[in-house]
Write a structure and sequence with these properties.
Largest interface: A-B, 113 and 87 residues
Shape of chain A: globular
Structural class of chain B: alpha/beta
Oligomer: heterodimer
Distance between the termini of chain B: 91 Å
Structural class of chain A: mainly alpha
Number of helices of chain A: 18
Number of strands of chain B: 7
Number of domains of chain B: 1
Largest sheet of chain A: none
CATH class of chain B: Alpha Beta
Largest sheet of chain B: 5 strands, parallel
Strand content of chain A: under 5%
CATH superfamily of chain B: SGNH hydrolase
Strand content of chain B: 5-15%
CATH architecture of chain B: 3-Layer(aba) Sandwich
Distance between the termini of chain A: 16 Å
C-alpha cells in the first residue's frame, strides 16, 4: 500500500495501537513482521513469496559464511547470495529489456528473431529490498558485521514496512541492533514522527502530485515539440516533482519508523544546493549512493589503483546505478552523464587543488550544478531518446517554431514551487531540519503543521504511486 | 557516487564551515555519505526540543477549524456530499458481472446515459437494477469491447451514442478497464474506506474542489498563442452504485447554468486542434468498424444489443449534427452492426425534456425520460416486462 492512501492511515493506526499494547517484545516484533508482509501483500499478495525467498537465501548464506573455514567456501556463499538476488532482480526487472535488446541485435545482423511474449509484472520495490538483503550478506562476508542473532530480527530487517519498497536502503548494522531491545516511541518521538509524516506527505501529495506532475507530464508525455520556456518549465517541474516525491517518501518513512520508536537514516540533505556533483551525491538518495560506493565502487578498486582505474570504476558504478533505476537505455544515459560530470569534477579538483571560490562564484557553481543536474533529468524523465533530444533542443533554444504547451498557471506554479525549493535548499544547505524546528516558535510550528495537513486534505490526492516504486 | 572516497572536498567545505559557525547546529549528524567502506552504525534521529504536545494540539484544532470552514464554504455554494465517480467505483460495478450477474442489463455510454438514466426508475419497472458502466467524456467502445471479450456476460447491453465522443473514440476517462483488472487489495480497501467514511459526509471531497483545480481555474492571464479549453465543471451527483443525476445547481442557478453552457460553447468554435473533415470521417469509420466487431461477438453469444441516441438540444445538437451528420454516423452505425437503435428524434415521448445546459436532462426529467425509454425498449425491442404490467397480467384471468 502507498503511504498516501486511506488504507495506510487505517493500517498505520492499527500498527501503532498493536505496538503500544503491553505485549512481550518478541510478540511485538512478530506483529511488525506480519504487518510488514500485509503492507507488501496489499499490492500483489503472491509477491510476498519473493520476499521470503530473498530473506531465506541471505539468512542461510550468512550462516554459511560464518561457519565456513576455507576462503573458497566463504566466497561461494557470498556468490550464492549475489547471484540469487541479482538473478531475481534480473528476471523480473531486466528480462524484457534484455530480450528486446537481443531481438534488436539479431535484427541488426539480419536474423529475424521473434521471442514469445514475456509478460512479467515488476514486483514493487524489488530493487530496494534486494539491495538491503545483499548488504547483509556482503557485510558479513566483508567482516563488517556479525550475522543477526535470530531469523525473526533478520526477517524484520528485510521487511520492516517503512523502508521496504522505496528505502531509505537500510544496512543490517543500522536496523538489526534496534530489534535487540524493546522499543517504543516516547510521546515526543511519536509527535515529531507524525510531524515528519505530514511534511513528507505534503511534499508528495500537494507539491509533487497536485502542482508539479501535470506540468512535467504535459511537456514529456505529449507529442508536441516544446519551446525554450516549456522545455525548461517541464524539466524544472520534474526536478521538483522527483525531489518532493522521493524525499517526501523518505521523510514519511523516517517519521513512520520514529512513531514506532525506530531510527532510520537521512536519505536527502537539500541536494539542489549542492556545489559540484560529488556534493550532489552526498545529498541525493544518500543510502543508494553510499551503497553503490561501498559495494561496487570500492570493490572495483575505487581510487586506490591510480586515476585511470578510478575513472573506470566511477563510470561503471554510475552506469550501473543508472540501470538500477530502470530497464531503459535512457536511465543508463542518465547515469553516464552523472559519471562524466563526476569524472570532470575529479579532474578539475586535481588540476585546481588550491582553488577556493568566493561567495558569488560559490553560488554560481551551485547554480551551474543544478542546471547540469536538470540536463540529466531530461534523460531520466523522457521515455525515449527521441523525446529527450526534443526537450533538450527546446532547452537550448533550437525549437524556435514550437507552440506554447503550458498555461500561465502551470508556469507560475512551477516557478513558485521550484523557486521555493531552491531557496530552501540554499538556506538549509549547512543546517538540519531539526535545528530550524528547535528555534522556531511553537505557535508557528502548530500553524505550519496545520496548514500542511489542511493542504493535504483539500488536495484530495488520488493515491498516486511514488515514482521510485517502479525502481 | 560522491567523493568521500576521493581525496577531499575542501573547496566548498570552507563555505559550509562558515555557515556552521554562524549558526551552530546541535542536531548535526553524519550520514552514510560520511562513512565510506565501513559498517554503518544505528542512525541518530534526534527530536528537536519543543513542547510537542501543545504543538500537536494547536495543529489539530487549527486543522479542524480550517476543514470545517472549507466544508461550510462549499456547502454554502450548494455542494452536497456525493460519491466520487472514479475507477474504483466503476470497478465495483464491473465486478458484478464476474460475481454472478452476467445476465444483467448493462448501460455503456458517456455522460448522457450516465446522468440521464435513473437506475431506481428502471429497477422499479423491470424489477432489477441495471449495471451502470458509463463514464463521462468517454467513448463506451472500450467497455463494450471488454464485455464482448467476457464470456460471463450474457445479458442485455444498452449502448449510448454521444456523437462527438462515440465517433471520435475520445476517452477523457480512459483506463478504467485496466484499473479494474489490476486493482490491488490496497486500492480496493481504500475505495471502501473512502466510500463509507469520507465521501458520504464531506461535500468538498469532490475533484472539482481540489486545491489544484480551484487554483487553476482562477482568472490567470492567458498565455499568448496557447488555446486551451475551460475544464468542465461539476455537473452531477453520484451514488454508491453509480446511479447519477444532473446537479440541481445546473438547473436552478442561472449563473452556473450559463457557465456550463459557455464551457460547452468553447467546443463548438473551430480550433487548430480539430481533426480535418477527412480525419473525422476516417475516425467515424474506424469506430463503426470497432462497434460492428464487438456487437457481432456479443450477439453470437446471445447478448441483446441496443443502441440509443440520447437527447441533446440547442447549439449542442446543432454542433453534433454538423460534425456527425446522422446519415454518416448513426444510420451507418446501425447498418454496419445490424443492431437496433433508438434515436430520440424518432420518438415523440423522448422529446420535449428540460436540458439546462443543452446536453443533460434535469433530475426530474431524467426520471420521466428513463420511464419513457424503458417503455419503448419493452414494447419494441427486448420485450421486458415492467413490474407493473407483470402484476397486471398476473391479475388478469387467463383467456
Amino acid at each position: 500500500m502507498v503511504f498516501n492512501s486511506l488504507t495506510f492511515v487505517v493500517f498505520f493506526a492499527c500498527v501503532l495501537a498493536l505496538h503500544a499494547l503491553p505485549l512481550p517484545w518478541t510478540t511485538k516484533k512478530i506483529n511488525l513482521l506480519i504487518a510488514s508482509y500485509l503492507f507488501y501483500a496489499a499490492w500483489n499478495p503472491p509477491f510476498v513469496i519473493l520476499l521470503w525467498v530473498s530473506t531465506v537465501i541471505d539468512w542461510y548464506a550468512a550462516q554459511g559464511l560464518v561457519k565456513a573455514r576455507r576462503p573458497a567456501t566463504r566466497h561461494a556463499w557470498m556468490l550464492l547470495s549475489v547471484i540469487a538476488n541479482l538473478g531475481m532482480l534480473g528476471y523480473f526487472k531486466y528480462g524484457q529489456f534484455l530480450l528486446d535488446n537481443f531481438t534488436t541485435l539479431m535484427s541488426v545482423i539480419g536474423v529475424a528473431y521473434h521471442p514469445a511474449h514475456y509478460d512479467i509484472v515488476l514486483p514493487v520495490g524489488i530493487s530496494f529490498y534486494t539491495f538491503a538483503t545483499m548488504s547483509y550478506t556482503l557485510d558479513v562476508y566483508l567482516r563488517r558485521a556479525a550475522p543477526a542473532q535470530n531469523l525473526l530480527d533478520y526477517a524484520l530487517f528485510v521487511t520492516f514496512f517503512p523502508h521496504l519498497v522505496a528505502g531509505p536502503i537500510m544496512r543490517p548494522t543500522e536496523l538489526v541492533p534496534q530489534f535487540a531491545q524493546p522499543r517504543r516511541a516516547s510521546g515526543e518521538q511519536l509527535r515529531f514522527g507524525l510531524a515528519l509524516m505530514t511534511l513528507g506527505l505534503f511534499n508528495k501529495i500537494v507539491l509533487a502530485d497536485s502542482f508539479l506532475a501535470s506540468a512535467a507530464e504535459r511537456v514529456y508525455d505529449s507529442d508536441k515539440i516544446p519551446g525554450a520556456l516549456d522545455a525548461w518549465a517541464g524539466t524544472l517541474a520534474f526536478s521538483g516533482q522527483i525531489f518532493c516525491d522521493f524525499a517526501g517518501y523518505s521523510t514519511t518513512a523516517i517519521g513512520a519508523a520514529l512513531c514506532l520508536g525506530f531510527a532510520m537514516p537521512d536519505n536527502f540533505r537539500f541536494p539542489y544546493a549542492a556545489v559540484g556533483f560529488s556534493d550532489f551525491w552526498r545529498r541525493w538518495h544518500i543510502t543508494l549512493s553510499s551503497w553503490l560506493r561501498d559495494y561496487l565502487y570500492i570493490p572495483l578498486g575505487g581510487n586506490r589503483h591510480g586515476a585511470r582505474r578510478a575513472y573506470a570504476a566511477l563510470m561503471t558504478t554510475m552506469l550501473l546505478g543508472g540501470l538500477w533505476h530502470g530497464a531503459n537505455w535512457t536511465f543508463v544515459a542518465w547515469g553516464g552523464l552523472h559519471g562524466v560530470y563526476l569524472a570532470v569534477e575529479r579532474a578539475l579538483r586535481a588540476r585546481f587543488a588550491n582553488y577556493r571560490p568566493g561567495p558569488l562564484v560559490f553560488v554560481a557553481l551551485g547554480l551551474l550544478t543544478y542546471t547540469l543536474v536538470n540536463v540529466t533529468w531530461v534523460f531520466f524523465r523522457a521515455k525515449t531518446f527521441g523525446k529527450a533530444w526534443s526537450v533538450l533542443r527546446g532547452m537550448f533554444g533550437q525549437n524556435a517554431a514550437a507552440k506554447p504547451i503550458l498555461a500561465t498557471f502551470n508556469l507560475l506554479s512551477v516557478a513558485a514551487i521550484v523557486g521555493g525549493i531552491l531557496l530552501t535548499h540554499w538556506l538549509m544547505r549547512a543546517r538540519t531540519l531539526e535545528s530550524v524546528i528547535a528555534r522556531a516558535p511553537a505557535l508557528a510550528l502548530s500553524m505550519i503543521w496545520a496548514l500542511m495537513a489542511f493542504a493535504i486534505v483539500i488536495a484530495q490526492g488520488a493515491g498516486n504511486a511514488f515514482i521510485y516504486f517502479q525502481f | 557516487m560522491h567523493s568521500s572516497t576521493s581525496s577531499s572536498d575542501a573547496r566548498h567545505d570552507a563555505a559550509d564551515e562558515y555557515l556552521r559557525q554562524s549558526a551552530p547546529d546541535r542536531y548535526a549528524r553524519q550520514t552514510a555519505a560520511d562513512r565510506p567502506g565501513v559498517a554503518q552504525p544505528v542512525p541518530v534521529r534526534p527530536v528537536p526540543v519543543q513542547p510537542w504536545g501543545r504543538i500537536l494540539l494547536g495543529a489539530v484544532l487549527l486543522l479542524a477549524l480550517l476543514v470545517t470552514g472549507w466544508e461550510e464554504y462549499w456547502r454554502a455554494y450548494g455542494v452536497r456530499p456525493s460519491i466520487t465517480n472514479n475507477f474504483g467505483l466503476w470497478a465495483i460495478q464491473r465486478r458484478r458481472i464476474d460475481a454472478g450477474e452476467g445476465d444483467a442489463t448493462v448501460l455503456a455510454g458517456a455522460s448522457r446515459l450516465y446522468f440521464d438514466m435513473q437506475l431506481h426508475v428502471w429497477e422499479r419497472m423491470a424489477g432489477r437494477r441495471p449495471i451502470q458502466l458509463s463514464f463521462e467524456g468517454t467513448s463506451p467502445l472500450a467497455a463494450v469491447e471488454d464485455l464482448a471479450a467476457d464470456p460471463q456476460f450474457t445479458g442485455r447491453l444498452l449502448i449510448a451514442v454521444e456523437p462527438d465522443l462515440f465517433f471520435s473514440g475520445y476517452e477523457y476517462r480512459g483506463g478504467a478497464i485496466r484499473y479494474a483488472r489490476k486493482e490491488s487489495p490496497s486500492q480496493r480497501t481504500g475505495q471502501w474506506l473512502s466510500m463509507h467514511l469520507i465521501e458520504p459526509y464531506l461535500a468538498f471531497d469532490d475533484p472539482d474542489y481540489s486545491l489544484q483545480t480551484v487554483l487553476a481555474r482562477q482568472r490567470w492571464p492567458a498565455r499568448p498563442g496557447l488555446h486551451s479549453f475551460t475544464r468542465v465543471r461539476k455537473l452531477a451527483e453520484t451514488e454508491a452504485d453509480r446511479n447519477s443525476h444532473l446537479w440541481d445547481k445546473v438547473d436552478i442557478d442561472p449563473k452556473y447554468r450559463a457557465l456550463a453552457r459557455s464551457i460547452w460553447a468553447e467546443e463548438f468554435v473551430p480550433s487548430d486542434d480539430d481533426p480535418s473533415p477527412a480525419e473525422a470521417m476516417k475516425s467515424e469509420k474506424e469506430q463503426i468498424e470497432r462497434s460492428a466487431k464487438a456487437v457481432a461477438r456479443l450477439r453470437a453469444r446471445g447478448v441483446k444489443v441496443l443502441f440509443v441516441r440520447m437527447p441533446s438540444t440547442g447549439p449542442f445538437l446543432e454542433f453534433e449534427d454538423r460534425m456527425h451528420p446522422r446519415a454518416r454516423s448513426w444510420d451507418a452505425l446501425l447498418s454496419a452492426t445490424r443492431a437496433p437503435g433508438i434515436h430520440f428524434e424518432d420518438y415523440p415521448e423522448l422529446q420535449g425534456y428540460n436540458l439546462p445546459e443543452w446536453s443533460h436532462l434535469a433530475r426530474a426529467d431524467a426520471e420521466r425520460f428513463t420511464a419513457a425509454l424503458y417503455r419503448i425498449i419493452e414494447r419494441d425491442f427486448w420485450g421486458l416486462k415492467t413490474v407493473a404490467s407483470a402484476v397486471q397480467s398476473n391479475a388478469e384471468p387467463a383467456r
